[in-house]
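User: Reviewer 2 asked us to show a designed sequence for the structure in our supplementary figure. I'm pasting the structure tokens here. Could you produce the per-position amino acids so we can include them in the response letter?
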């Protein structure tokens, strides 16, 4: 009998720094990580590409970036925050389709066939970015798009700050329009999503608890593993030491045992039913 629960464990930021890249590969080869999304404009893109081509079992997608990195179209830096990005979009200073299409093409031109799309800082919740992402998914034949709406985690109150839970609930208000846009462009999502509320604050115990509460159907678990080396320490990100804790959780024998105990099937996007 096939598993009622399918889980895609997906790491963001492949191409951010070499120590993040190395952590993602170890999370796949030594842990439960099944997929990752590549930053076409990341400083360590070439290193990520080398590792991706050497690791064909790792499912690769596109981590589309409009915050904090540089444009592949103009060479100019993007806004540093989501708030500044939204203001720039409102002033039509950034054309999201052209920017993100250049990122997808760089990954394709490098010989990678991406299976899924997501965005840095979940910026595809903004209507013009969502429209661009869905259009790219349809045009390039990349059917899967992240749905960044966590399933409820009230059972893990100690791991999820109140503000984070409230933010997650507020994001859920956008759900209906989000799915209408994806359906119009024939894009697909997993049934469920997890990881937003516990980003940067989960260890093995929290991951095991989350797996115990995984709903039936398909779920994407977002994670940010890596090694906190000198390059990452100097990078502009709040996720530093926490990446090592997430990597340890992905590789822990207790995590693997929880998957077996709860009948959870690990898959990449090609394996989703």
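Assistant: Here is a per-position design you can include in the supplement:
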């Amino acid at each position: 009998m096939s598993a009622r629960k399918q889980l895609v464990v997906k790491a963001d930021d492949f191409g951010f720094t070499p120590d993040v890249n190395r952590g993602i590969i170890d999370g796949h080869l030594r842990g439960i990580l099944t997929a990752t999304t590549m930053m076409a404009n990341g400083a360590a893109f070439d290193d990520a590409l080398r590792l991706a081509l050497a690791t064909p079992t790792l499912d690769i997608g596109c981590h589309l970036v409009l915050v904090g990195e540089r444009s592949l179209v103009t060479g100019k830096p993007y806004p540093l925050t989501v708030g500044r990005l939204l203001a720039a979009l409102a002033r039509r200073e950034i054309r999201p389709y052209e920017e993100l299409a250049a990122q997808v093409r760089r990954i394709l031109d490098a010989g990678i066939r991406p299976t899924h799309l997501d965005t840095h800082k979940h910026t595809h919740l903004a209507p013009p970015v969502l429209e661009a992402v869905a259009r790219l998914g349809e045009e390039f034949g990349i059917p899967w798009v992240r749905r960044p709406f966590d399933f409820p985690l009230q059972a893990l109150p100690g791991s999820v700050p109140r503000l984070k839970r409230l933010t997650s609930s507020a994001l859920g208000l956008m759900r209906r329009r989000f799915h209408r846009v994806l359906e119009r462009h024939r894009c697909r999502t997993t049934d469920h999503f997890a990881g937003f509320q516990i980003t940067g604050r989960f260890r093995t115990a929290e991951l095991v608890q989350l797996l115990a509460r995984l709903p039936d159907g398909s779920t994407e678990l977002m994670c940010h593993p890596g090694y906190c080396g000198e390059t990452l320490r100097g990078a502009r990100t709040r996720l530093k030491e926490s990446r090592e804790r997430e990597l340890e959780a992905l590789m822990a024998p207790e995590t693997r045992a929880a998957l077996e105990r709860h009948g959870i099937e690990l898959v990449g996007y090609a394996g989703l039913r």
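For the response letter, you might also mention the following. The two ends are 14 Å apart (CA to CA). The beta strands are 5-14, 35-38, 59-64, 116-119, 144-145, 192-194, 217-223, 264-266.
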